[in-house]
Amino acid sequence: MTASGAAWGRFLWGGVRVISSGGEGLFADLYLLTMAYAYWREGKTQPRAVFDLFFRGAPFGGHYAVVAGLDRALRFLDGWRFGPADIDYLASLGVFPDPAFLEFLRDQTFAGDVDAMPEGTLAFANEPLLRVTAPLVQATGVETGLLNAVGFPSAVATKATRIVRAAEGRPVVEFGARRAPARDAALAAARASVIGGCAGTSLLEAARRYDLTPSGTQAHAMLMMFGELEGFRMYARAFPDNLVLLVDTYNVLRSGLPHAIQVFRETTDRLGRRPRSYGIRIDSGDLAWLSKRCRAELAAAGFADARITLTSDLDEYVIASLIREQGAQADAFGVGTKLATADGQTSLGNVYKLGACERVPGSGRFEGVIKLSENRAKITNPGVKTVVRFYDGDGRAVVDEIRLADESPPALPREFFDPVDTWKRKTVPAGRWEGLLQPLVRAGCAVGGLPPVAAAAERCRTQLASFSDENLRLLNPHGYHVDLSERLWQEKQRLMRTSGT
Amino acid sequence: MTASGAAWGRFLWGGVRVISSGGEGLFADLYLLTMAYAYWREGKTQPRAVFDLFFRGAPFGGHYAVVAGLDRALRFLDGWRFGPADIDYLASLGVFPDPAFLEFLRDQTFAGDVDAMPEGTLAFANEPLLRVTAPLVQATGVETGLLNAVGFPSAVATKATRIVRAAEGRPVVEFGARRAPARDAALAAARASVIGGCAGTSLLEAARRYDLTPSGTQAHAMLMMFGELEGFRMYARAFPDNLVLLVDTYNVLRSGLPHAIQVFRETTDRLGRRPRSYGIRIDSGDLAWLSKRCRAELAAAGFADARITLTSDLDEYVIASLIREQGAQADAFGVGTKLATADGQTSLGNVYKLGACERVPGSGRFEGVIKLSENRAKITNPGVKTVVRFYDGDGRAVVDEIRLADESPPALPREFFDPVDTWKRKTVPAGRWEGLLQPLVRAGCAVGGLPPVAAAAERCRTQLASFSDENLRLLNPHGYHVDLSERLWQEKQRLMRTSGT
């Protein structure tokens, strides 16, 4: 397995399907297949349907989410089929009265189109992150897998942008594999964290698979096993030039720090120079107070350039407080649980909703549909849609527009209005625009390859830089304007009046 | 793949190692291998170490966690090795100065012992859920993988017991695959939910793999695509005897319910009898009010036995309120996001701490070690420990004791005292006791097989029944007494005085 690698057959190997042992068809909620059965039974499998994957509310009290997880989405779509064992299992359930349906399923692969926002893109509520266009049974069958693939990585990437922002330029390393919700989740969290701006990960398998920078030093067990001073010395003998010592096993100021300084001295004497990279890690206690005391004592001992790494249940709020309010002395942060679980919104809460369908199979003429609700936020946007982001003359993102894919190209200057508070209007005189949905899959095959993680991280950085601080701040950020095009808005109003009766 | 199956080689195939393509050795935080390098460099790989996996505080404001995830722990331990590609990757990092270390790693497999609480056991803070005894490098190297394997499933199983308790006998189905944090996490969540008492899962792959009951009906898209009435009819033609209709696509009382009643009538006419199983699902809106109105109108239409299933961002608190405070009419619940993310404590927060180590390799004489902290809760318990649960004459669990493994067998009557508030004492006059740690792995091979999920679910039911309602209630439950044995307590006091200087 290589950096951009991973093992999805068809997409990597240029159109040649690699038969894998297990199909992904059963990674589905049962209702997707009972509905598929009902469609099949009535000969309704061929009309194409267009589904949008989006979230209704942004995570963590902010306004945006960072798109991630497309690697998993592609792998899932490539694996979406029903192998013999899958078919046997479905037959054994006794749920599907006509066995010919299972023969139909056996021949299914995903042959549709997917458009997606590239990884690292900032997305806002109700904007399609992915748009799936496929024959009804296929578009239906991939719902669970796509939602699962994209939600958690996007939540983690978003959390990472917040934590990295709070760290104000100090590197943040993702440390959370042990607390991540599964093996896959740990790998996804490491990858998404780096897309969101983290400098690296502690998890070797993720570093290898995604070409990330692995990071790590020592744990308490080593010092409990051999004693603190001897444990430090053993580590210094092994890694004299990458010497980060964990100082809180017993008592930071009375034991850990003096022992660390002693070993820094011994190592400096042995090398005839300072270690190339050295410092301490504090993993418990009052981090701000301890870090300030440690910095002062390190400086007094002649080790002013020792790096201080802080870890211990950190998140964006704790880091912001440590730096801004408490004057903590920190050169780097390690963040585990709160990042690798996307704490506060482990699920992005993304949904997959029908936007349009063909009435005549193969006609290419799609009719918009809508889901109503007493809760306005749950009313869907109908039609085959795309998303355009407008930038002003300074390159600042000023408004997004959700629009129908067949509208004439956007142009500036334009006056936009808020789809809910229609009296709120905003004129953009000049600038550029960018279509956010890009072809990802065509007729079941990946378009190009997925960019490497570093490119997604770079896109995320560029995107963040195009928004104002007011849009991005951690607490009560200023809302960003997401518009519906006039045509889409009119179509939505029409369907709200006429649907469901 | 079969029910109890899954693909871990060595453990299933009775001692014969199956070489799998990818080793799990790199599913490790880098620091595990830098420490291993330091140990290896000084010839310290052979002393055996004893690590405890435990949590410091129970999740969700309760006192217990339900053990789950041993399937993943076994699979990880079986796969723990470094294949050629793993070694190449480690060499490429340039982290390990002496390449002979990588040759040493290449020969490593997990050859240690693991004792564990069986899945479904209720565990309390600081009790070892797993105890690992292995040569130092092996015991160290499996830390990340074991914590990752056990934490999330145990959190989900615990959440499930709470939700099932709130449902007061009504079946709860796990619906959360789409919101689970990864593919693996979705499978683990379904399995753990059933261990915790759920009746089934919507996720087919989990149902197949773990022999669970799959469950599901229809989604909004079907009704948006074909119209609500025609969508209901299509579904009724396909599944006349398992006819659960989703009534909230447009308007429950004005549209969904009347259409459902119409289709129940048509289906009853067509069959010449009622459908065997039928009802409605409400997925949005005021669930209590809507469910009562629906029950009344269904009864008035002659469908009093229609089942009402409620779904929509439910958890134990919402369900308890729906039933107890609001008089909701519900025959079943589907719970998704909040269950499949273990909402509120996605990570169990479990840790893996050194308890004891051999000073002389192979001597079998283990010396207890301790980690100190200013925070009393973070001070570890030293030694090779086990956990005994004492039941009174009525079969009620009354106290757990964490004790040294080589103490003489427990006996009743006994007076216990609280390890923190030592003035709190409790006498257990008669009853029985149970050792909670059971052999899981010996010399790297699984002892027996893992019991099927149904057995773990049964154990969980039995365990729950042995605790009082006061210990289990959702809000502010009464604490359960977890004692340290006199010998362990004395040893801990001694090490607290003498360690780390």
Helix content of chain A: 25-40%
| Strand content bin of chain A | 15-25%
Looking at CATH, the homologous superfamily of the largest domain in chain A is: nicotinate phosphoribosyltransferase
CATH architecture of the largest domain in chain A, please? Alpha-Beta Barrel
The gross shape of chain A turns out to be globular
Largest interface: A-B, 109 and 107 residues
Q: Please give the CATH class of the largest domain in chain A.
A: Alpha Beta
Number of domains of chain A: 2
Q: How many extended strands of chain A? A: 21
Find the CATH topology of the largest domain in chain A: nicotinate phosphoribosyltransferase
Compute the separation of the termini of chain A in Å. Answer: 54 Å
Give the oligomeric state: homodimer
What about the largest sheet of chain A?
7 strands, antiparallel
Characterization of the model:
In chain A, α3 (70-79) runs antiparallel to α7 (143-166). The relative contact order of chain A is 0.15. Chain A contains 18 helices and 21 strands. In chain A, 38% of the residues lie in helices and 19% in strands. The longest helix of chain A has 24 residues, at 143-166. Chain A is of the alpha/beta class. In chain A, strands 13-12-1-5-3-19-20 form a seven-stranded antiparallel β-sheet. Chain A folds into two domains: 23-141 and 349-498, nicotinate phosphoribosyltransferase, CATH 3.20.140; 166-340, Alpha-Beta Barrel (TIM Barrel), CATH 3.20.20.70. Chain A has helices at 9-12, 30-41, 70-79, 84-93, 100-106, 136-141, 143-166, 183-195, 204-210, 220-226, 228-238, 252-271, 287-300, 316-325, 337-340, 453-465, 469-472, 486-498, and strands at 48-55, 64-66, 113-116, 122-124, 130-135, 172-174, 200-201, 242-246, 277-282, 307-310, 332-335, 350-358, 366-368, 385-391, 397-404, 414-417, 425-428, 432-435, 438-442, 445-446, 482-484. Chains A and B meet through α2, α4, α7, α8 and α9 of A and α2, α4, α7, α8 and α9 of B.
